[in-house]
Design brief:
Layout: H1 2-44, E1 51-57, E2 68-74, E3 94-101, H2 112-116, E4 122-129
Antiparallel strand pairs: 1-2, 1-3, 3-4
Length: 133
């Protein structure tokens, strides 16, 4: 009878230790998953790059900033170019826009109108135009 009680005490002690080890393992896994998720989220909060972005005209009036759709990051246009997008000398449609983003910005605005809107996290620094048609 004494042997059975000893076996029960040993079993309870082992189960108790296994429960504590299991709890520590679960907590460690939770911390690991949480920190990995935090690093991924931090990468998503990186503001877009400052620089020149392509602009395409969508819709009716090309002078309407709501129709000037902002595309992808591009190289800076040349100062002048009679046959392509340039910072000066052309009187055609806007073809590129230079944007500066606040540190809290997370996306590129859809169009120039949104970039210039009050409360926008984007500053429109300059534009470039294509030659007149």
């Amino acid at each position: 009878m004494c042997g059975n009680k000893l076996k029960i005490i040993i079993m309870k002690t082992l189960l108790n230790k296994l429960n504590k080890i299991g709890l520590v393992a679960v907590l460690f896994a939770a911390v690991l998953i949480t920190t990995q998720s935090a690093f991924k989220a931090a990468g998503k909060l990186t503001p877009p790059a400052n620089g020149w972005y392509t602009v395409t005209i969508s819709g009716g009036d090309p002078a309407d900033e709501g129709n000037q759709v902002i595309g992808s990051l591009s190289s800076a246009p040349p100062a002048t170019d009679l046959f392509g997008c340039a910072k000066s000398g052309n009187l055609g449609d806007v073809c590129r826009v230079q944007l500066t983003f606040s540190s809290s910005a997370t996306t590129v605005p859809a169009n120039v109108e949104a970039a210039k809107a009050p409360g926008s996290e984007t500053t429109v620094d300059d534009t470039a135009e294509s030659p007149e048609d």
